[in-house]
Amino acid sequence: MWEDKPLAGERITVLGGGVSGISLACLAAKLGADVFLSDARVLSADAEKKLADHGVAFETEGHSARVFECDRVLVGSGFPAQADILSEVQMRGLPVVGELDFVSPWLQGKLIGITGSNGKTTTTSLLGHLLRCLGHDVAIVGNIVSPLAEIAGERHDFIVAEFSSFQLYRAHSLPLVGAIVTNLAPDHIDWRGSYEN
Q1: Alpha-carbon span 163 to 175, nearest angstrom
Q2: Rounded Cα gap, residues 115 and 161, in angstroms
């Protein structure tokens, strides 16, 4: 798939080597980009193998100046918004793109997003099950099963996705046909800063 390599020649840095960051890096590589992943932590052996299999260069246990040698920066969903390296990326004027905005152009199916403080997984599972019972080809993705990037390029009638507040923080152009907010509670204050935020 993507034999024409639509991102050929583009240099992309991915910040964050969590599940979503690894999937973002691999998708960008499949699309033809020259990808570099940077994480302050140590990656699992499985993550390192997946990156190597996709030809993605990476660094761990800190961020080097190589982070800035790119055309844009992709941010994994769990990467802290207040991280010093992200502040420096923005200060240098590099475009910063979140997981959902990067992946959504490559999705093929009607996208339904579900978020909220509690009940996301149950609601996502139930809606996906009901749509399947109606005879639709449904992909259930997000925090519940696997990252959205894992189904990029696959054809489905519906894509039912569980979205965290971390993912939605950088989402600006989601092509949703439906959305559900289950509830709002004072969770993740350490990441958000305050309930008001």
Answers
A1: 14
A2: 9
Q: What is the pTM of this model?
A: 0.90
Packing angle of the helix pair 45-53, 19-30 (nearest 10 deg): 10
CA 142, 148, 149, 150 dihedral sign is positive
Q: Compute the distance between CA of residue 50 and CA of residue 23 in angstroms, rounded to an integer.
A: 9
Residues in the chain with pLDDT values less than 70: 1, 186-197
Residue 85 · residue 38 · CB < 8 Å:
yes
The answer to whether the beta carbons of residues 179 and 112 sit under 8 Å apart is yes
Name the residue with tokens 């997946």.
Answer: 50
| Alpha-carbon span 139 to 193, nearest angstrom | 33
Residues 6+ apart with CB under 8 A from 48: 58
